[in-house]
Amino acid sequence: MADLTTTYLGLKLKNPVIAGSSGLTNDIENLKRLEKFGAGAVVLKSIFEEQILIETDREVSAADLVSHSEAAGYLTTMTKEHSVYGYLELIEEAKKAVSIPVIASVNCLTSGEWTKFSKRIQEAGADALELNILITDYKNRDSKEIEKDYVRIVEKVKGIVDIPLALKVSTLFTNIPRMLTGLSSGADGLVLFNRYWSPDIDLDEMAVSSGNVYSSPEEITVPLRWIGLISNLVECDISATTGVHDGNGVIKLLLVGATTVQVCSALYLKGIEHIGDIVSRADAWLDAHGYASVKEIRGLLGPKSEEERRVFGRAQFMKYYTLKE
Ligand SMILES: Cc1cc2nc3c(=O)[nH]c(=O)nc-3n(C[C@H](O)[C@H](O)[C@H](O)COP(=O)(O)O)c2cc1C
Question: Which fold has domain 6-324?
Fold first, then answer.
């Protein structure tokens, strides 16, 4: 058996496979099972900035935060069902129930009042905090201004908590490497990439519905490409998410420079116990290829110079298209 131990956000993990944030990590029994089957760490389900504001600030109502009445109704119901104080309890209970690191998660849009609540998350015992940020203020501000908000959020929360901070972002930036290298100087980790909700249309019901909620293994090419391109440029750890469904996926992402990987859809589709299979198959790959530890393979295939990055980012693709002609 290879040495799978790794350090992520300064935390010691028994292996690099993390159960990513989702409804599955909102339940203590699931967290115990994730630990039992081999998860290296867990990221709890996110709470939303809006939930925090509604519950912690008496002046704020759902209608103040979202103009659409249906969205305000949803927000009010969700806040009643999942109280932020319940979230603090979840962190406390999780810390008692499992010995692997427990990472809390907030889905946020601003560096506003909600950020004070991050202190409570730390006090509840979270080992680290992951911020899931997707700012979609397309109408009122240009991209440069929106990008500055990401930096402001990191600076603000870093000034409030001492626990490590990871940032989960999507690919929705024009210049992904530049944006991510900038963010990496403030955060302890980048979680790449958030898979944003995709709409579909139900033609029978004539209504908007959810598109593919779960990822497919083919989607791994997105984190593979960008982590490969930036892993030698950023100053912090990288946790890969999207499209990891098996042990080979873990190995591929480590090879391009990820520190850890997060799995979610595969656990919904195949059950929580599947995380054990992912870990053991990654281990088997290392054994079969003569590597004694995950550290030995990290970044082996990631481009290390500007020239190699050009090859990785463009020449491969030119070669592929030329061959197809
Ligand atoms: C049902 C479901 C719920 C999710 N909830 C959250 C969440 O609360 N916070 C978050 O940061 N990501 C959430 N995600 C995103 C996952 O953590 C993960 O980043 C994404 O699904 C891509 O990884 P995968 O290909 O392994 O599914 C959710 C995903 C699914 C499918």
Answer: TIM Barrel (3.20.20)
